[in-house]
Amino acid sequence: MAAPVQHDVVIIGAGPGGYVAAIRGAQLGFDVAVVEREVALGGTCLRVGCIPSKALLESSHRYQEAKETLGEHGVLVDGVRADLAAMQARRANVVKQNTDGIEYLFKKNKITRYLGDGKLTGDRAVSVTAPDGSVTELVAEHVVLATGSEVATLKGVELDDEVVVSSTEALEWDAVPASLVVIGAGYIGLELGSVWSRLGAKVTVVEYLDRILPGMDSEVAREALRVFKQQGLEFELGARVTGVSVTGKGAKRTASVAIDGREPVVGEKVLVAVGRRPATSGLGLEDVGVALDDRGRVAVDEDFRTNVAGVYAIGDLIHGPMLAHKAEEDGVVLMERLAGQASAVHYALVPGVAYTEPEIASVGQTEDQLKDGGVAYRKGVFPFSANGRARAIGSTQGRVKILADATTDRVLGVHIIGPRAGDLIAEAVAAMTFGASSEDIARTFHAHPTLSEVVKEAALAVDGRAIHI
Any catalytic annotation for residue 415? Predict the structure, then answer.
């Protein structure tokens, strides 16, 4: 048997956490290897998640604009139709560009890549089983688990990958379903529901809670609900799904979503979007004794160390929001700490974004949390409808809300619904990272005319001195 191959760092998983950790580790001088079962690098995010969904969101939004609003700009388009095959081809090309980019970065940074399933087998040892069944043994000073997450299931609901599907299948349909039932009103459900609604499907969103966007500011969520209803999405809130049954044959199959105490909702397709769970199976955690917490996540300390010497975990496998940018920061900070550098992840300031239209973004504490915690705060709100650039581009729905400590004026939370909210939230994250006050934001130049001026005006509004309203 061949001797194990030695590396400084072996990372299992090439998603945003794993590949970013690998690149940063290589920059710091480590001999890094990455084990990934998929041929394409980039993990769920690049292959079947963040990137392809945004490609379809953009294409479907442009189609909707051509149908409904370009005339307002004097652009007259007759006979607009959606070419779904072309949209899907573009989606696939965008994905390939991104995954090819990661492959290039691996070569540039001299990162060794192993294709296959990685499994912990002993003291800092990893076994890689390739698609052809061959096995390669690796050893490293540091082994990093970065396998991300997988689709969470719902009791009584069985996925069949055709009628009752996860987000992966819902990204690849070659025909627009006449009707779609989305179970779950979080980011994924609302984004994909928006895509297929724009393309002509009748979309009904079923949510167990009595609100949408769990975890986001409730005032913003209420406004988002109103906007989505205007766009034609229907909602069943406070609805407990008890099962899904599929009837009919072939192309005539339909699914009936049973709801406790209510009439069932019927659709040609059902998308189950109730969240994600850590992808821990097959890693050999039990074999080497890696501990999990009470939520099935890998238990780690502040340095990402598991209870097994030399084994670390990052990203969706551990505590914190299951977001690609959080996983990336985990990976960077871990590598820097292994290199002896001081580095930290600011978990309280991980932004969340729903890429619907309008976009919805949030960072820090919500108004609900401040009230529940008895924190005295001041609030500044400014609408996009009062912003010159928003009027010019014809996107005036929504607002920016800034919450600041009543005594110190330190910004505690920023919540945005409106055009390019996902980009605008970056200013708030930067400001809060450096402990800024609402006065700091209000006193900072914001170019005119830009959407960012709404953030400035909301900061002014905290002190009751917004200019343009």
Answer: no
